[in-house]
Structures are given as structure tokens and as C-alpha cells.
């Protein structure tokens, strides 16, 4: 069951998956930030008799700018998609997942969940929520059939804008960012191994490990240098998921 924004090639992807792997691939184009979005998705799934054994909450958004240069709509959309839609989908599908012999929930946070991020001041707190929500839910579901993991990638080379943003970061971008297939393989391997937190990439795991020992002032300078230059160059443009 694939869900994405209209115009992102979802029908073609579903057909490709069906032909390549001989599976039933349903799709539903929608904006999860719309007020009735989750309800419409659940209604569609019920109509098509879609049964879920693995829930992957991957949709996310963010902006790269100073907070006072952002719009209220940008901030609200970030919170609605990264937090509210994830909670709604998880809460709605959890009862059915718990009835299966084995089921999985994978929530996609970010390496930014561990650090305050100047020039992405709302994005990183939403991902911190995803991280802590996932770990809390995992503890609650211990002993049940539901396994919960959270994925914390660094930058991902997805759409053209994300690739351009990563390339402008020079060596730091090349060392820490990955391609979607690399992240997907690491995510599914970690989910199958029942790891609570999955951080793809050796360099990213190193950053996470040393981050708690580095003075916060230094962390703020590094993050500001990495994201601030691009924010000054281009304001009010979406960064996309997985940054």
C-alpha cells in the first residue's frame, strides 16, 4: 500500500512493483497534511481490503531558513506531516497490527533528532518527537506481537533539490549523505533484527556517538555553518524528507 503526493509517479511505481515481484501493489495519492487525509486513506484501505503487517511512516517535510523568514504555513505543515499524521496512522492501525502473529512499525526520524538545528528550527524538534515517541511505544508494546523501530538517517539523495543541497555542503555532505536504496536496505535489515534505533552509515553512527560529548556551542556552530549558508541563499524552499 503506497501513499504519496499527487504527481510523484506513484501509479508507475506500483505497476513496476507488481510486474517485477508478482505482488499486489495498491496506491493512493494524497496530502497527509489535509484535515481528513488520514481518514480518507483508511477508508480507501478498508474498501480495497488492505491488511497491514508492516507500517512504515516515511512521509516528512521541512524548510531551510531562519525561523523569522519562514511562514506560519510552513511550520504548521511540518508539524502536521511529521508529527500529527504519523500519530494518527499509528494509532489507527495499531489494533490490527497487534492482532497479527508478527507485525512491525518503522518510524522515520532523522539524525537531526539528536541535535537542535539552527536554520531548520521546527524540523529537528518534530524528528525528536518521532524518536522519543517510537522508543516509548516500543517499550509499551514489549511482549506483544508488534515490534517498533525508528530510523535516523542523515541526508538522503532523493529529489533534485535535496541532491543540490547535499552537493553544496562539500566533503561533509559526501561523507554523511546516502542514496535511498542504501538507507532502505539498512532500515529493513535493522527492522528485521529488531533494533530500536537504526542509524545508517558508519560516519553517521560516529556523529551520533560523539554528539553527546561535544559542547553544545560547537554543535551549534557546525550546524549553523552547514545549513545557514544555504538558508541565506534560498529562502522558503522545502528540503523534503530524510534530511
Task: Please explain how this structure is put together.
51% of the residues lie in helices and 10% in strands. Helix 3 packs parallel to helix 4 (123-140). The chain is globular, with a radius of gyration of 18 Å. The protein has one domain (31-233): Rossmann fold. With 243 residues, it is an alpha/beta fold.
SSE ordering: EHEHEHEHEHHHEHH
CATH topology-level fold name:
Rossmann fold
Assigned CATH superfamily? NAD(P)-binding Rossmann-like Domain
Which stretches are poorly predicted, pLDDT < 50 over at least 5 residues? 236-243
So, CATH architecture? 3-Layer(aba) Sandwich
Widest β-sheet, arrangement of strands = 3-4-5-6
The averaged pLDDT comes out at: 88
The N- and C-terminal alpha carbons lie at a distance of 24 Å
What's the structural domain tally?
1
DSSP strand tally: 6
Helix content: 40-55%
Q: In terms of structural class, how would the helical and strand content be classed?
A: alpha/beta
Strand content: 5-15%
Radius of gyration over C-alpha positions, nearest whole angstrom: 18 Å
Amino acid at each position: 500500500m503506497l501513499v504519496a503526493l499527487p504527481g510523484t509517479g506513484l501509479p508507475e511505481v506500483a505497476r513496476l512493483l507488481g510486474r517485477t515481484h508478482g505482488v499486489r501493489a495498491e496506491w493512493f495519492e494524497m496530502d497527509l497534511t489535509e484535515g481528513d487525509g488520514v481518514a480518507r486513506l483508511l477508508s480507501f484501505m478498508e474498501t480495497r481490503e488492505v491488511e497491514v503487517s508492516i507500517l512504515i511512516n516515511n512521509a516528512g517535510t521541512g524548510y531551510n531558513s531562519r525561523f523569522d523568514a519562514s511562514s506560519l504555513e510552513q511550520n504548521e505543515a511540518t508539524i502536521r506531516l511529521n508529527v500529527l499524521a504519523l500519530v494518527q496512522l499509528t494509532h489507527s492501525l495499531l489494533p490490527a497490527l497487534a492482532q497479527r502473529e508478527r507485525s512491525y512499525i518503522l518510524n522515520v526520524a532523522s539524525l537531526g533528532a539528536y541535535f537542535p538545528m539552527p536554520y531548520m528550527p521546527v524540523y529537528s524538534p518534530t524528528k525528536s518527537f518521532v524518536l522519543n515517541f517510537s522508543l516509548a511505544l516500543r517499550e509499551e508494546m514489549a511482549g506483544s506481537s508488534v515490534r517498533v523501530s525508528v530510523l535516523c538517517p542523515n541526508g538522503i539523495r532523493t529529489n533534485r533539490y535535496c541532491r543540490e543541497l547535499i552537493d553544496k555542503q562539500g566533503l561533509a555532505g559526501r561523507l554523511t549523505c546516502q542514496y535511498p536504496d542504501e538507507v532502505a536496505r539498512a532500515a529493513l535489515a535493522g527492522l528485521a533484527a529488531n533494533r530500536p534505533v537504526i542509524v545508517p552509515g558508519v560516519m553517521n553512527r560516529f556523529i551520533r556517538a560523539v554528539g553527546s560529548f561535544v559542547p553544545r556551542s560547537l554543535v551549534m556552530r557546525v550546524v549553523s555553518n552547514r545549513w545557514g549558508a544555504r538558508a541565506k541563499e534560498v529562502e522558503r524552499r522545502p528540503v523534503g524528507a530524510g534530511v
